[in-house]
Write a structure and sequence with these properties.
By secondary structure, the chain is of the alpha+beta class. Helices cover 28% and strands 30% of the residues. One adenosine-5'-diphosphate (ADP) binds next to β7, β9, β10, β13 and β14.
Amino acid sequence: MIESLLIANRGEIACRIIRTARALGIRTVAVYSDADANALHVRQADEAVHIGASPARESYLVGDRIIAAAKQTGAEAIHPGYGFLSENADFAQAVLDAGLIWVGPNPDSIRAMGLKDAAKQRMIAAGVPVTPGYLGEDQSPERLKDEADSIGYPVLIKAVAGGGGKGMRRVDTAAEFADALVSCQREAASSFGNTDVLIEKYILSPRHIEVQVFGDSHGNVVHLFERDCSLQRRHQKVIEEAPAPGMDEATREAICAAAVKAAKAVDYIGAGTIEFIADASEGLRADRIWFMEMNTRLQVEHPVTEEITGQDLVEWQLRVASSEPLPKRQDELAIDGWAMEARLYAEDPAKGFLPSIGTLERFDLGATARVDTGVEQDAEISPFYDPMIAKVIAWGEDRETAREALADALDGAVVWPVRSNAGFLVEALDHPDFVAGTLDTGLIAREGDALMPPTHPTEEALAEAAGALVCADPIAGFRLNAAPRRSATFLLDGEPVEVELDGQAGTMPPFEDVLISEAGQTWQLKPWRASGVAAGAAADGAILSPMPGRIIAVDVAAGDAVTKGQKLVTLEAMKMEHSLTAPFDGIVADLNAIEGGQVTEGTMLVRIEKDS
Ligand code: ADP
Ligand code: ADP
Ligand code: MG
């Protein structure tokens, strides 16, 4: 067995690999960029080497520095994780040339599957069904258009070097083809430095079904069943599960056999995934499932397979890289129950899924589900890398149990002030089509707005949070024997809201706040007086009316000496009494409040001058 391992990655996958390495007694070496100096993976590893500036192309993508770091620390092997250099055959070769162990397939296998057109040619030769389409060398726009016409619309133009859902254009009519081709090639050039494309029949009612395969250096290849990754946004997976809903035993056998055949065709060693696209218009049928591409690495969604098979796939990778045979034979592997994973992103669904960065002041995903993450509370979410901050994985006896467990875990997620997609994930998990298992890759795009999480907490959650903020204070507080239904104005994420207080008495502590988390969403509730207006007023001693209302008491006179916190004026507004107090010790320099008088928001009521 390998004794020391360098992990050429960051975030959750680096932490995931460290976890297994540690359990196997393997010494771990992390690498990190400037932005990741305090990252969790760096703290978890036995050793860490700084490899460059924050942008990935100056650190995590610089193969030479990573290999040098391995040499410097005496690491025996390099695990690339996913993304970054994991599917870079030249890097894999350089690792081997440096005398190190590469935890992954041979560079030739990576190369064979690296470009989508060549991979499909290879699969056709091996007898694996592939998506119908054009894979030719002739890349002239005329020829590509002719091919699209004869395939029949809709078609999908795909960059042969594409990945991560980029470099793809669906074309519905011949008239749109030319423009779509130009824009696809432009994206392919800038993202992958290769403008070649292939044309595929666009499969209707598409389901993304993939099969986990594993090979060892002794010629064995097994599969670990399928995953369904059909819930996607812009061709990127959002929720994954295993097994696939609606998969019957015969179809499973057929596609898993096709996946093993595909892996054997490229002498595959290590963890790999064969991705298929299925036409699910009449359920899953073996003759309507086609090879799409192979990912020659560990996949983001590998945990769902681990959960249903009871295997640790990182352990399998490390054993295979150590030249051991696969830990299990095919007939020793079976599916137990159901697992579902959701990708938690630092992004704001309400703002078009804009990535959200900053300090993760609160981060709590509970303890009921498996959480694979690379961050902890107080971590900095930087703009340099993928916004995925965690994966939440739930297992159950059956699909519904797993789904409910995952939805529950996400429902209670607290992520603040960084925005997350947890609320969106809850909505997606609860969507009737998802619940019924009648999903396809277009569900999110179709349902868009229906999956938007609530923008406000429920009245009950608001009242509970407000109640927590209102501290009992018999002197300055609300009169206990006044009308039974009281309410107060608070700021919910900066917007004023009126909240029923259920007869509670007390005053607002000016600088406290409380987080409300519900339905995967997190909001901040503050007393109104902690707002900018009040803070500004406190600085110069001018007490402004925080809202329109009626002055019901004036407790001071001009020229009075007052002490910090002393009640000056009581305002009644929105069915509630608000005490305005002295921000510091001083003298009442101006008094502009008359008992019984109506005031507008921002009216200067009292001005206190500091004692000098
Ligand atoms: P694909 O989308 O190609 O089928 P995956 O679903 O496994 O494959 O996702 C791989 C993607 O994960 C990469 O394209 C990259 O954007 C992202 N990624 C890479 N490294 C990390 C990381 N350390 N943490 C989070 N996300 C990452
Ligand atoms: P990437 O390398 O970016 O992961 P893939 O070829 O795996 O590219 O395709 C990504 C996603 O695009 C698939 O999961 C699927 O949702 C969609 N897709 C790909 N090919 C087709 C097709 N022929 N018909 C319909 N949808 C497709
Ligand atoms: Mg893919």
